[in-house]
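Subject: sequence -> structure tokens, single chain

Hey, anyone have a minute? Need the predicted structure for the following. Not urgent.
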Amino acid sequence: MDTTKTADPTAPEADTAEPKATEAKADLKDAPAAESAEAAEAPEADLTDEDLEDELHDEFDESEKKPEGVGAAASAVVAAGLGLVALSGSWVSRVIAERQTLVGQIESVNAATTEAKIEALYGDAWHMTALVNGVLSTLALLLAVFVLARPAFGAPGRTLPTWVRAVSWAAVALGALGVLLFGLMYFDILAPLPKAA
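Reply:
Had a minute. Here:
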């Protein structure tokens, strides 16, 4: 006697039996693809902690080998700032000029001629202003030239970004203009002291 139960063709369980069989066939078809994917992931699973650390250190070394040129950019901006400050007049030059004016007032008491009084009261202060601002202009010029010349002595093929070169050239122009103007002012060529009548 057969005691196995046969499925009723109209029963809902019979409908689910066919999709299970289809899923099983699909699983068999996907099995080789899954095995190849697992095989591709297997080398990563076999990596030890030392291998992972070596890979991490290699990534850090690569990032350290590529300097971004932040120092050159900062130097170019500082050089341009120094050039602008020198041309517009710095606080330091103003303080030194005021001090020299005070010294000139003290010395003007002993001055015999009017020209000596003018020189003591105003000339020395103007010269000190020109000297301090000329030094600032020279620093700006030297710093900008250093920024522009540095890639020539660095790694071959390494160039500065365009904006850094532009700012450096602007700083060279400001510095050179300042050195020229303040040099002429210091030697009384551009703005000589007035003569007493």
